[in-house]
Amino acid sequence: MPLKIPDRLPAIDILKQENIFVMDDSRAHTQDIRPLQIVILNLMPLKITTETDLIRLLSNTPLQLDITFMKLKSHTSKNTPIEHMMMFYKDFDELRSRKFDGMIITGAPVEMLDFEEVTYWDEMSMIFEWAKTHVTSSLFICWAAQAGMFYHYGIPKYPLEKKMFGIFIQKITDPQLPIFRGFDDIFYMPQSRHSEVRREDILANPALQIIAESEESGVSMVMARDGREFFITGHLEYAPNTLDNEYRRDLGKRDDVDVPKNYYRDNNPDNAPLVRWRAHANLLFSNWINYYVYQTTPYNIEDIR
After folding, report:
1. Cβ neighbourhood burial of 213 (10 Å; 0-12, 13-18, 19+)
2. How do 65-71 and 3-5 pair as beta strands?
3. This model's pTM is above 0.85
4. DSSP character for 68?
5. Closest Cα partner for 103 from 5, 11, 37, 9?
6. Active site residue ranges
7. CA-to-CA distance for 305 and 285, rounded, in angstroms?
8. What is the pLDDT of residues 30-74, one digit of tens each?
9. Per-residue model confidence as pLDDT tens digits over 195-250
């Protein structure tokens, strides 16, 4: 089954070229089923790129998903046309009375700041609190994972001397969890961050469970509230060329960014990336939708508590 997304969203044409089935509003209205309501709070600068990355993964589920994009009223995107934001995004104030089966909150380029120094932290805090009672299951990605663990559980973040940058092997700590159904013993995850959360802080909080980690890149996935919250420190949603784009963007401009590890063939930036994470990325998002959203959410969405 396809995703139901707004008419004329640029991702539609991009994904159709990849032979991925998406369905716009017009066609979806002719189907008489209850689609799962998924809201995406997109904090990334390149909105259209992130929209495409996430929709590509969500489209792999056999369920119909109705996608809503949320934006912050207290922050104006500088890298996406205002016409795009006005056409496809809604402020939190417009959505706060609604309930959603699932929510995804992306990373944001503010990790060098303390959380309280982020200009939109107050609005983020309201959204975090709202999601506890208005969303069945939430995925927090990269900075949002750090911010969510800090807001809900007081977990601090720490700056890194060098950017954690590349593709890293991850080990699953509890293979019986449905989120990992069909996974191999190890999987790969892209990381692109200047800060970290630490294992000892998370283990000290009984409300949190580390469910995947790496000897090299540290904690990668944390679960809370029996799967109502997942915190992912990396970027399984990244397209094959994203780390390359980031590396070349920062080349010669920063001294804390090295060549992304385990990414280019033979670790040579002149070679193409070796893509090793997409299969598990598709599987993880499908498992989340199936086992933690569809199998858990009430049929009457207003019964979400």
Report:
1. buried
2. parallel
3. yes
4. E
5. 37
6. 142, 235, 237
7. 23
8. 444 689 999 999 999 999 999 999 999 999 888 899 999 999 999
9. 999 999 999 999 999 999 999 999 999 999 999 999 999 999 999 999 999 999 99
